[in-house]
Amino acid sequence: MTAAIERVGARWWLLGALLLLVPFVVPVPGQLERMHVVRSFGVIAHFGLPFALVLLLYRYGPLKGSLGAAAVLAFLLAAGCEIPQLFVGRHPRLQDAGVDLGGVVSAAGLLLHLERGRRWALLIFLAGLAVLAYQVREIPAFIRGERLARARFPLLADFEDDRELFLWNENEGSGATYSFEDHLGGGRLLSFTGKPGDSWPGVILRSMPRDWSGYRKLAFDARVDGGGQAVLSVRLDDFDSRRDAVSCGDSFRITGDWRRYEMDLAAAAGDIEERTFRLDDIGSLLLFLGRVERTTVVQLDNISLE
After folding, report:
1. Strands (E), the chain
2. pTM of the complete model
3. Is the model's pLDDT at 34 over the cut of 70?
4. What is the 8-class DSSP label of residue 85?
5. What is the dihedral of CA 32, 303, 247, 241, to 10 degrees?
6. Please, what's the largest Cα pairwise distance for the chain?
């Protein structure tokens, strides 16, 4: 009787283990996807679910008692769930797989300590937790930055408040570097650097109010630091761009002198033939360089809607 109960229990727990992976492979509801802060907390799921999966596989089923096999299988299942995301409108990332590994390592360290009395395994447990701590370290500052973005909209950026720093990123995989710097005329600006061999070096802003439909143009100040010229491109993605990569934008030839540049939003959106571009559902603003033949430093300031 006891054995039968254990077998039924094992089946249910294994089913529960598989259910732990469901959040990794189902489409995220659109309203949640639009909330950047909620998406930032997804890293906790990428740590916690593989952590729980190791515990379940170790205690129930054919891998019961085999910690190494349970840990390897848990990681393969969790990281493997990045692949189906391609077919449900989500975006697989190596970073997520790294957090999955952190959860697996932390669970293995905890079991080694509790089940087998390995005191040194606490270091493994803490090392896994350190991965999570590193990934969530900027969430509070990010939340404060989003509040700032909502409060001053339609000003998108003037780089005077440290909270803005957490709203910007380099164009992923571009090789670009960026920083906030003092403006010679007072105040601060954003500076990014593109080098030969970089792939579309630039900076991207994702955390901002989404509805731009009430505005005619996007305006910004820009120059090439140190003189010379460069072609600076602006790309807007709406929420649906996450699935079909349709975007709109414009390009501007900038020089060593500060100038105000303007992009006609309606005209840029109207150039899109594949579908209607949603100016009321903007997802990101990217400013970038194309082919870079020499090291180029671009300075940006006072980005706003008008």
Report:
1. 155-157, 168-170, 177-182, 188-194, 202-205, 217-224, 230-238, 247-254, 259-264, 282-289, 296-305
2. 0.74
3. no
4. G
5. -10
6. 84
